[in-house]
Write a structure and sequence with these properties.
Oligomer: heterodimer
CATH architecture of the largest domain in chain A: Beta Barrel
Strand order of the largest sheet of chain A: 1-5-8-7-6-9
CATH class of the largest domain in chain A: Mainly Beta
Shape of chain B: globular
CATH topology of the largest domain in chain B: tm1086 (SG structure) fold
Number of domains of chain B: 2
Number of helices of chain B: 5
CATH topology of the largest domain in chain A: Thrombin, subunit H
Number of helices of chain A: 4
Structural class of chain A: mainly beta
Strand content of chain B: 25-35%
Largest sheet of chain A: 6 strands, antiparallel, barrel
Strand order of the largest sheet of chain B: 1-2-5-4-3-6
Largest interface: A-B, 37 and 31 residues
CATH architecture of the largest domain in chain B: 3-layer Sandwich
Low-confidence stretches of chain B: none
Shape of chain A: globular
Helix content of chain A: under 10%
Amino acid sequence: MAVHDINRAELLETVVVGAVTSPEMSSMNPYDVTADGAPFVPVGAGGVCYTVKVGMSALDWAADHVEPGASIANPSGPANEALSLYACVGNRVVVRTGDAAGAEGVVTGKHEAFHAYKHVLVHLDDDALDRLMPGDVLRVSACGRGMTVAGQPGIACHSIGPELWDAWAPAGEAGRLAIRVARILPPEVVGMGSGRVSAATSVALQREPAYGLTGLRIGDVVAIREWDASYYTGYHEDRVTIAVVATGDSPVLGDGPATTILLSGPADAFSLAVDEDANLANLLGLS
Amino acid sequence: MILPGMAGVVVNARVGDLVFPWAADHLEPGVSAGNAKRERHQALQFLACIGNDVVVRSGPAAGAVGCVTGKHAFVLVDYPRNALELLAPGDRLLVRAVGQGLRFPDHPDVAARSCSPRLLEQLGIGEGGEGRIRVEIAAEIPSYLMGAGLGMSSEWANCDVMFTRSEVVERLGFGNVRLGDVVAMHDQDHRFGRGFRHGYCAIGVVAHGGHGAIPGHGMGVATILSGPSERFELVRVEQANLRERLRLPD
């Protein structure tokens, strides 16, 4: 089936830059507290991660919100807001400085920690990661902001680049947008991230023993029922939100894998098909 | 739309009043207390407990005694109407903080959070049947409505119930909820942070209103207790509200 039309010709390609971050700790006390009240040292957010990649499990790492690949931000607050708003999943990235200069990567997600940082996550190959340093500057070819779906004015597009749209290949089907998702989740699974600006933030999926996130992978495209992210994120009985898993899990209560919002709209605007291969690693050929 | 409600002094919306019929967002009833120094503000946030006395120490209302009734970004304090009509931003308030560290020796798996001894006593929280803790509540909230505040510390601010839209309030029958109501939040574990956990329950008090326009937000509920659901004997009553139970003066 043909890929459904978007307003491709109208979309700007602009440049935003970020520097590879370095993990930050805020106090003398290194411990956060798990859902069961045990202290742990959070590791995984910020900098470069060599071991965890898009396509791997989002669960069971000895980590808190592990960010796969390279984590970037702009040290200037307003410029980082622009980076967080304009960068879209699937956008091309080039390393501009340092030993990895010239290496090419792809935006795979965004991650916001409340009252802390906003990171854009970039997949690069192993050779580039080995040469990368915190502070190296990455150039993002930002494209996707302003996207609309032909014939579906109720669908809000957020952090989805045209590169991902084409690879994911949503199709028009009986007046609905037919899309593939790795799983469909109920609204109570959404934890931290309610009430935030959909375009730049991430929302957490709460891992809960009686509830199944089993098998969830970083890069999975997921649907959340009864959830609206048209502008801000929150419960809405008639809406569906489509997001991509950007980070690994968290031991913190009410927190969990951070998801980056791709689409949100009326439930009857979508036709959802569950397909385990609806993962960025497959769709974008990341390795 | 510009909607007031947060910070400062709200004279006419009080604990005991209905949550929703106000042109307000994140309506903080009575007085919102903070400290300009961040570290001290955090201490105020974490150490003040619901039911604590708060004495006005400066300005024309000096000497008036209020009561902590909730938490948001600020600590929320109810005062008698005659004091509210005198109070102004900048007046010094002294909180007699007691409650953090409170625990139940016979119920080690139930956590108390921002809950003063006075609150326990005057809410009549005590031994129920079959070794359970009896709590009178005015409303019960399903987990899928819990929004902003999940993932944060149990003692910090509160957790919003996503009553952003009046249709949801009406459809689910929450139109009569009042500021200061004691409510149960099902499938919520608020012991070490706040999150969804099947088979757990959190008890809280309605701290701020919430009929604003921003999705994901809404009526804020400050946690006072949390533990396995089977540890609680929940009793629905209409008058489970801080106004009556703490005998807050008009």
